[in-house]
């Protein structure tokens, strides 16, 4: 080591005396100036040796992140030996059960909401049910997306003899300080808190029950997922939940519980399905019947006749109410052999189906096609029926869909003629009924 140092020092001395070997180039008298460092490069200053240890060592990223599990997580099991059987608690024995979901279905005009108001009135006064049994008095909570509480629901309740101090109506919900419309699909946690605050709620009415579904009401999994919180809330609050919905027409002669509009999950999740319909009595007169279409927790047959009548609960205010008739025996399918349509012929054709859908008001073409598909009708059949009925179709804005409604002045058919021609005027750009022509208004004729 010492010898090497001496050699290096000797070479340095020779360099000072300009006696370096020829093969070793003489160092320049002055080193060239360092090139100018660009401005962007000055941003990334080199690390000092003392900072090297601060640079983190790159770690390999795992392809599958580790799942953090709580030690207490797992499936909850319960042995039957640790459980005790308990009876179903009935609000109306074999018809309305505490903590269960019920569906009341029927065609438009059969008084479904009026029936629900009659049940609510019975609860508020601890009155008698149609079978003569006594009801335990309690409060009722009502949400309706179709009828106004002040001019429709409350008058019907009063006409049925309700104690209005026990009637509560859901008007809106408060979110982030703002009052917004109540949405059953979104606001059930706030609703449960309100029910617990009121106390004594025995019956909750949701009209229509399809409003509790955020997704597609024709998809089984989405309907089940949406209805379960409603079921859980009824069980937690100790009240019977009654959801109101419509029939899908075109299924005459089949099980009425299977004719509920939308997914079969509506009737599958509900423990009891009630159906209301108009039939032909033995004397040839129209009669209405409320029957059990399905029950998982009691008898699933039998029913009661009922009539709709007008009353004046407050001077100057008219309201409909239910007048109960005699009990009837048989399954819902047997009792409702001649359902709600005005005539049997109309019930069996597509025009009757479409007329029934639109009898409650305008609907979008998309919704009509969905219900028609569920009833076994094709789009072409519905389009032809719309021409036959003279359905009015309007476009909802530039990006909106088509809205269908019954005609303001129904077309009159030729009596006694087997061939009838109907005329329908539509804009040529109608997406609901495409035409080969491209310009101007047009009219189409069909013979049936």
Q: Report the span from N to C terminus.
A: 117 Å
What is the subunit arrangement here? single chain
CATH uppermost class of the largest domain: Alpha Beta
CATH topology-level fold name of the largest domain: Rossmann fold
What form results from the Cα inertia axes? globular
- The helicity comes to 25-40%
- Give me the side-by-side strand order of the main sheet: 5-4-8-9-3-10-11-12-13
Q: What's the average pLDDT?
A: 77
The ordered string of helix (H) and strand (E) elements is: HHEEEHEHEEEHEHEHEEEEHHHEHHEEEE
Kindly summarize this structure in a few lines.
It comes from Giesbergeria sinuosa. This protein is α/β, with parallel strands linked by helices and 448 residues long. The chain contains twelve helices and 18 strands.
Provide an overview of this structure:
A 9-stranded mixed sheet has the order 5-4-8-9-3-10-11-12-13, with helices on both faces. A 3-stranded antiparallel sheet has the order 14-16-15. It has 448 residues and is of the alpha/beta class. The model is unreliable at 339-348 and 412-448 (pLDDT under 50). It contains 12 helices and 18 strands. The protein folds into 2 domains: 90-335, 3-Layer(aba) Sandwich (Rossmann fold); 349-447, no CATH class. It starts with a helix and ends with a strand. A hairpin with a 6-residue loop joins strand 15 (392-395) and strand 16. The radius of gyration is 38 Å and the shape is globular.
